[in-house]
Design a protein that fits this description.
Number of domains: 2
Structural class: mainly alpha
Shape: globular
Radius of gyration: 21 Å
Order of helices and strands: HHHHHHHHHHHHHHHHHH
Oligomer: single chain
CATH architecture of the largest domain: Up-down Bundle
């Protein structure tokens, strides 16, 4: 099935229709991001109520949170390939249906085991929704400048979800009970499904590619091992080491299998010969390496040092999500004036600067200095996220849009996982004190500044093309 949208000659009527449907398409794609992110943030608030309802201990409650993330990580590459092979609109629509079904299972779960199974199903849905939504934007907005504006709005929904998720979720739990937070995804998924059905054009580019079973198995083991290590890192023990060991064994097997398949591989390695794409991947991983460890360690030290309660620590982190949301809505227009390379470089540099500023505090105190650092990080994320995604998917052909979208999300996840694991270990090495906090945040900031250098060097060609 050839691409039926941006490889056809459009007359004036066709162009007018494309312009007319774009707002509806963008709303649908933004709903997908909100579904995926809100689903994660609101569930964090409900674990105490779930534990009381099912008399569940810490271990099963942890899996209520992490079943989603683990399944999402394992199936992410496959979700991108399915979108490219069988249709991005089809993958998106299936994702919305599966998300609604999984959420209903969670809401009606009679025991914690069924609840965990429902969460795994919603993780499967996210592995289809997120890469297909980004790939659809790549196809519906072939012009770099227009795509940049769309991606700015799309990426801002990440910040919006983390800002409204805890507030809305807390209110719903208080008013209607913990089951209500899972029902939140159902109307959002239904609206996204309707918009996809009426507005999103179908597109696919199989080009002699098929499901790469060997690559999918090795890729799933590698991603699953990394995700499992991140999940278990908070508790220590042998499980994080086992996860990283599985990933270390599976990764070279995956690369070997993909090299043998060439252009028909699940992840064609030739993509990484595109300098802008590789630079985008490295910069994304560097960014999340520092930002996720910052968001993990900062509230931890605030609470352990008795500076803030858990609720107040959550409110203190709003400066990241709110500035991220506000700035990213404007990032598309700014990128047209400054260029993608400048936006990504400056944004990543600001995130690194924010990390270093927080590292200069004494375990997050004074609060004012830490809040300035968080705000800088939020501004940086708002500046760079949309252009970064735009460079990554825009530097490869539209026929690889789903795969490129999945890979940029893999880089995001891998950077976050390694950051939390490695910088968390640095923090623990100093017995969780102010020195360990300072060292961990400083290393995260240095890695992010390195990402800014990579963006400046590697994104030059793409920036010129997008200007």
């Amino acid at each position: 099935m050839a691409d039926r949208f941006d490889n056809v000659a459009l007359d004036n009527t066709g162009c007018a229709r494309r312009e007319a449907i774009r707002p509806l398409v963008l709303i649908g794609m933004c709903l997908a991001v909100l579904i995926a992110q809100i689903d994660t943030s609101v569930v964090n608030l409900s674990t105490n109520a779930i534990g009381n309802a099912f008399r569940a201990g810490v271990a099963p409650l942890q899996w209520v949170l992490d079943a989603y993330n683990l399944v999402y990580a394992i199936l992410l590459l496959s979700g991108g390939l399915v979108a490219d092979l069988y249709g991005r609109r089809l993958a998106f629509m299936i994702g919305t249906i599966v998300m609604a079904a999984g959420s209903l299972i969670c809401a009606g779960a009679p025991n914690v085991g069924i609840l965990i199974a429902g969460r795994a199903i919603t993780g499967m849905a996210a592995s289809l929704l997120v890469p297909s939504s980004l790939a659809i934007i790549r196809v519906v907005w072939p012009e770099p400048a227009a795509r940049g504006r769309a991606l700015g709005i799309w990426s801002s929904c990440n910040g919006l979800a983390f800002a409204i998720g805890p507030t809305l979720g807390g209110a719903m739990i208080e008013a209607f009970g913990w089951r209500s937070v899972f029902l939140l995804a159902v109307p959002l998924a239904s609206a996204a499904l309707l918009l996809a059905k009426i507005a999103v054009p179908e597109s696919a580019n199989p080009q002699d590619r098929h499901l790469d079973v060997q690559g999918q198995v090795y890729g799933a083991l590698a991603l699953g091992g990394i995700a499992l290590a991140a999940i278990a890192a908070h508790h220590g023990g042998w499980l994080p080491i086992a996860g990283l060991s599985v990933a270390a064994i599976a990764l070279p097997l995956f690369l070997g299998a993909e090299r043998r398949r060439g252009r028909t591989a699940l992840v064609p390695l030739e993509l990484f010969r595109v300098r802008a794409f590789s630079g985008g991947i490295v910069t994304t991983a560097a960014m999340t390496f520092g930002i996720y460890s910052m968001i993990f360690l900062l509230p931890l030290v605030w609470q352990s040092e008795d500076h803030l309660t858990p609720h107040d620590a959550g409110l203190a982190l709003l400066s990241v999500s709110l500035t991220f949301f506000v700035v990213s809505t404007q990032s598309g227009g700014m990128a047209e004036r400054l260029g993608a390379r400048a936006m990504i470089t400056i944004g990543t540099g600001l995130i690194g600067g924010g990390s270093l500023l927080i590292a200069a505090t004494r375990a997050g105190v004074p609060m004012a200095l830490a809040e300035i650092g968080l705000a800088l990080a939020g501004v940086g994320m708002g500046l760079n996220t949309g252009p970064l995604y735009g460079v990554a998917v825009g530097s490869v052909g539209h026929e690889r849009a789903g795969t490129a979208s999945a890979l940029i999300n893999v880089a995001r996840m891998a950077g976050a996982t390694l950051g939390v694991a490695l910088l968390g270990s640095v923090f623990a090495l100093f017995h969780g004190g102010a020195a360990g906090f300072r060292m961990a945040l400083a290393l995260g900031g240095i890695v992010q500044l390195g990402g800014a250098v990579v963006a400046f060097v590697c994104c030059e060609a793409s920036a010129k093309n997008n200007e």
